[in-house]
């Protein structure tokens, strides 16, 4: 029971004034250590994270509200604005540097699950449960293009010119953003169960996909590289399978983290096919995580993720927390595989 009560077994730094309900996304500014969270309590919050050596301070900066739960967030590449979308079917742009002004910049017919800013195109892309994806030029009120999807959008990753969209029914739709209005390729996920998250390789040659049954797929775009594709198990305990909720590539070393509904985080090297580090398991799921722009800070949330429904939600034991972890080089740097090639 005492292990269950420990919501911070890794002694990570805990952020003050966390959301009052589960966290749905975490996003660091590309230009600074400003951290934004979105939550099921309808709020978008921002903290200013200051790191001095091994010490971290997180000062709550500001917040604003949507009308309904917020599901996703992303930053503009200049670090001047945050975009957030969710169950009110709209994306709001929050201009943090100009008095906190907010404006609606995108709309859908159903909740917006994923958003990304594409600096190379100066466009915002939004993916919704209305089975469409839309591209938005912020100078215009209407989308510049609406892309029909085969099913509801569940996951999205962009590393220009690569974009991968994961939908219901295990569809993975790959786009070359040099021709953004046509699908480059559509495949069925190599994983047998529902897609939860996707992450483009830093070199844009492929992507990772995580599913609800504790497995990750490593997928290359070039069919000549098919022999390098593989899947591996993670976020499992005994016979229980847990969702892989978040995959993040380290911005410098290009290894990656996975965070799951089992409350655990692991760091991996796909090229040597090994786990570099497993953190201590937390007492609740980890629905989202992210690295800051230089990979020196890893933020993650610990809270109920609703995968077992409202009937399994116990407000007396389900505290919502956001933590900041300082990864050691050994945790996130590739290392040669013992014994050479396998």
Automatic annotation (TrEMBL):
WD repeats lie at residues 16-50, 63-104, 105-146, 244-278. It comes from the Eukaryota. Keywords: Repeat, WD repeat. The keyword Repeat applies. This is Putative transcription factor WD40-like family.
